[in-house]
Batch of 2 targets.
Target 1
Amino acid sequence: MRPAPRMFTRQDLGEGAYALSSEQARYLGRVLRLGPGADIRLFNGRQGEWVYRLARIDGRGGEAMPVEQRRLQAEPSGKPVLLFAPLKRGPTELIAQKATEMGAVRLQPVITSRTNRDQVRIDRLHTIAVEAAEQCERLSVPDIAEPVPLDDGLRTVESYVFCDEAGDQPNEPWGGEMGRAGLADRVFGEVSASPDAVLVGPEGGFTPDERARLRADPRALPISLGPRILRAETAALVALTLWQVRFGDLA
Ligand code: SAM
């Protein structure tokens, strides 16, 4: 039997009838062909997950009544935050989906020297994040922030993993071998407190000047993601996974 569908809402849960939006009613009624008596699961990022039972539903809306709270809301940890340079539409939307699945609490686009996009469709990325949260059984949806200059983005966190794909010789391909950052397993093994965020650069990478400043930043934890140069959207997913394995819910 198919599990009750999950839907995100901003409304409070557990008290009184829940009014379905027309969009929700269309999805539940027309797509899933559910009617009165069917259960749905609602979550709002604050009160865990509740089972509601459809009382009335039609093409314009409907109503559901609370049955029970199925899952408690864990205390928000506030991390990891993903600091990333906006990419073309497809890869940016992929980052929104995969970062949600990997437990990012906030997506903070940062504008670096080589970032080729300074705008993101917040509403579209939020919709993608909601769908990903509903599908992966998360109890929250990451915040999607407006893009800010790199330094402003870094100021929103106390510490961050700096995914540095290169060495310290700017005239060498990918910065050469000198000063290459350590691999996550070793670097993370040397820290006790979990970094607040992971930082991934744009398609064109960080400039030598940006890299020098980031490497000199005491709040940064530079790591290499291995010998291959990953696409930014791949690097974001890998970095969040490594973070969860060492500091989060994959540990
Ligand atoms: N530096 C290359 C360039 O100039 O085209 C590639 C940048 S890469 C496509 C985008 C971002 O992903 C990098 O800035 C870095 O943050 C991250 N990244 C990719 N591969 C990586 C690796 N092997 N180690 C660490 N970070 C990596």
Target 2
Amino acid sequence: MTKPVDLLKFNQAWAESVKAEDAGYFDRLSEQQTPEYLWIGCSDSRIAANQIVGMEPGSIFVHRNIANVVVHTDLNCLSVIQYAVEVLKVKHIVVVGHYGCGGVQAALGEANNGLIDNWLEHIRDVYRQHKTAVDSATSEKERANRLCELNVIAQVGHVADTTIVRNAWRDGQDLTLHGWIYSLEDGIVRDLQVTRDATSLT
Ligand code: CO
């Protein structure tokens, strides 16, 4: 089992190996960040945003919470979106869910999970809207996976409905939203084909 002190040692070894390979790495990284992507994903420890899409640190601005939910009263998430859109001027916002998401599975279950059930209620809203599609799945796993996909699609809609994104589109800013889903079973990220841009402004 690792101890916190081990992580600090790993960090020193990592920093030294990076410098040995690329002497200017930290000088470049310590300058202003200019990411073109905002990633809104699940907190799940198995999903490292940069790593799974092969991008270097500095290229993706990240917000993560349980089950990648975008709620219009969540100041944390809205602040991240505002900073990403208005200051960093990211070109893409990607909501990335994953199959086998524990949050989504818990939302479908009957267990009493305490405080987090209030958060999961947002996913139950998605389930209630798509009950027929979810319940027509042939297994519990498939049922949960369908809701994982529908949850991503719903959250992309919530991003599109924020005043931040709507104002950016009205101002002609180049900004596209995407809904993706990651499979822990094969490591592949799939596009759910719900891409939105300024043309979806109503
Ligand atoms: Co998850």
